[in-house]
Amino acid sequence: MCLYRALRLVVAGGDNDGIFAVLTSSERYQLAVNICRSIPYYLKTVPGFLISRLMFSLRVAFDTFSEGMIEREFIQQMFGYIGEKYRFRVFANQCSESSTAVRARPTTVLEYIKHRMYLHLYNHRSRMPSERKEPSHDDLAQDVEHVGEASTRLLCASGHVCLLTSCIFRRRHVKCDETPIACKNCHSAGWKCDGYDENRLPHLSGGSCTNKNITATIIRSEPSFSLHLNTTPLPGGNSNERRGFVYFQFWTVPKMSSFFDTHLWHNLVLPMSHSERAVTHAVIALGALHEDIEARGVPLSRAELTNHRQRFALEQYTRALSLLSSHRHVNDPKLRGVVLTCCLLFVMFELLRGLYDEAFVHLQQGLSLVKAFKEVDTQPQSPLVLESSKYIETALSDAMMRLHLQSGFFGADISDPQLTRSRIDDYQGFNSIIEAREELDIVFQPVSRFMDAVRQLASEPRPPDSNITRLDVTRMQVCLRIELARYLHRLNRFESRMQKSLDRKSQRAIDLIRLHHKTFSLVLETYIDIEDMTYDVHIDGFREMVLLSERITNSFDERSDPNNNSSRPTFLLDMGILPPLLYVCLTSPCVYTRRQALRCLRAWPHREGPWDSNLVALMGTITLQVEIEAEFKRLSTIKTIRKTKVSSVRDITYIPPPSRIICVNMTMDDNQKTAVLKYNTKERGSGMPQLERRVLVDEVSWI
């Protein structure tokens, strides 16, 4: 702190009444040079939060010296060195990339400068006061030259790597060479070395300056920087792990909660990650993988073992699994929350990788643990411990239940009666948005069962254990219509009462609830049969769903540049606009509405739980291509092209029932490069073998 104040006073001219007021400009000039020379010596003892202040003073001193002066060149070297060591790229840019000080290893340069400062202080203090003198201009030029030479490794007579005439190994015995996995120098000398991580994260332009107590993270969000300062000790054994944790805390968690506020992450997961190593490594793995996806522009999920970030994330994921294995058979209520938390993080990690089978295996295991814990809770326990564990398990089980209901669209079994949420017979107005959301989640369960009943009714041959009749489906449809109408009435009352106090995020949440309600209502009316003109009656409903989705998407960009989409979240836990837009792309008879939905999907690449916007857009595009080709072929067969003025597939604007496809599903091959769309037509019937359309993902022509 004294160094910072001294340099600031010297360069700024000092205070009028203080000691620096009597100095001449040349004396102040020389003193500033000496202080700048001593900065590298103090770097190992200066706290991290003072580094930025020192850099500010160094920048002022840099501007004080004129172009071409040797002092200015020396400070340029210091800019590059300190910027590289502490990941402050904003300051590192002050030094050219060709500078030898930047290419030199930071530890090597620091050792040399520290050694030079020891000699300088010893010579200075050993002289009489009358004989003392400050280093000359030539001494400073020599230092600059030696800083560049420090990047060149020289061998002494002992065969060790040395700096100039000073052998580091002779002075410090053996110096660890920081080789990944294990240090060669330590092992050759007989010392035990734990080594360093094999997989390390690459340096980013908006990296992070971290130590164990204070972290200043700069996350690039064009066109500006967001600076987050954390003053609490961070979990993680090295800078890469702390970087992954900070990314998760300050970027992943806020983005995942962009739709609805939740206490799950801030009040449960983050505090637990400071005390449980398994949760720590799981959080770091998810943060590192999320960082990699955002850095690559949110592409289609593919396993790339050559990717440094993915390998680092997999390494952290493996560590979390190994640490969690010791808690598998533990019935301690305090550790049950740890197991469920890791299970939820594993599900999200695998979903982010695009491995749905592995993710749903973790999800089913987590739900099995929830059911097992409920049986254990029947035994007498401490009321305080029981209440705390129930709070944690309820928050985690609610998040898993939402993912469980969505997994039904990906082929998972959601018929377990023990995994259903009880319905609340309360027809009063909602008290909060969270309450409205929870009520809609309860409605989502019977809607999913209705869709499953319709599929069983239409399947040929019928499943042997299925006893669903047309009357049962009709009764379910009528009951759900009444329930959705009551829900809409309660939602309208709540919004009218809270209209003046709603902020942008609350309004976005209500719009999302309305979008889901509209989707459920259209599913009830259009999911049963496609032989009639039911879809034509609800064309306006499909268009309203697309407009609501666009409104939700644009709500993230109102405070930023219209051409900049960096403010939109790329990874959310909650179901958002993707399932409604997919239903529009698969069922709307209006080609223009479908293309509008596809544009909305491609404008916002992101993931919502198990839903991937890239896969949804791909499935919608291939489906539309198949149906347009079928309609063009149908018109060509009945020879009405001249009457309808349809000369190519681009002229098709309406998809009638005869040209629509049914039983649509899409799969990806193991390398995520080929998509296979399986479907059937009304003429063939659902009992016939499905037709296939194979396309290369990278060569898809978007409509």
Topology (elements, then pairings):
Elements (H helix, E strand, L loop, with lengths): L1 H11 L12 H18 L8 H14 L5 H16 L3 H4 L7 H4 L2 H21 L10 H13 L4 E2 L5 E2 L5 H5 L11 H5 L19 E3 L4 E7 L2 E7 L8 H18 L7 H10 L3 H19 L12 H17 L8 H21 L2 H21 L6 H25 L25 H26 L11 H29 L5 H23 L7 H4 L1 H16 L16 E2 L5 H10 L3 H13 L3 E2 L2 E2 H25 L3 H4 L16 E8 L5 E8 L9 E6 L7
Keywords for this entry:
single chain; 703 residues; mainly alpha; 3-stranded antiparallel sheet; 3-stranded mixed sheet; 26 helices; globular; Zn2Cys6_DnaBD; transcription; metal-binding; zinc ion binding; transcription regulation
Structural commentary:
This is Putative transcriptional regulatory protein C15D4.02. InterPro entries: Fun_TF, Transcr_Regulatory_Proteins, Zn2Cys6_DnaBD. GO terms for molecular function: DNA binding; DNA-binding transcription factor activity, RNA polymerase II-specific; zinc ion binding. This protein is mostly helical and 703 residues long. It has a domain at 2-152. It has helices at residues 2-12, 25-42, 51-64, 70-85, 89-92, 100-103, 106-126, 137-149, 168-172, 184-188, 239-256, 264-273, 277-295, 308-324, 333-353, 356-376, 383-407, 433-458, 470-498, 504-526, 534-537, 539-554, 578-587, 591-603, 613-637, 641-644; strands at 154-155, 161-162, 208-210, 215-221, 224-230, 571-572, 607-608, 611-612, 661-668, 674-681, 691-696. The strands form four sheets. Strands 3-4-5 form a three-stranded antiparallel β-sheet, covered by helices on one side. A three-stranded mixed β-sheet has the order 6-7-8. α1 (2-12) packs antiparallel against α2, α11 packs across α13 and α23 (578-587) runs antiparallel to α24 (591-603). The longest helix has 29 residues, at 470-498. The protein is globular.
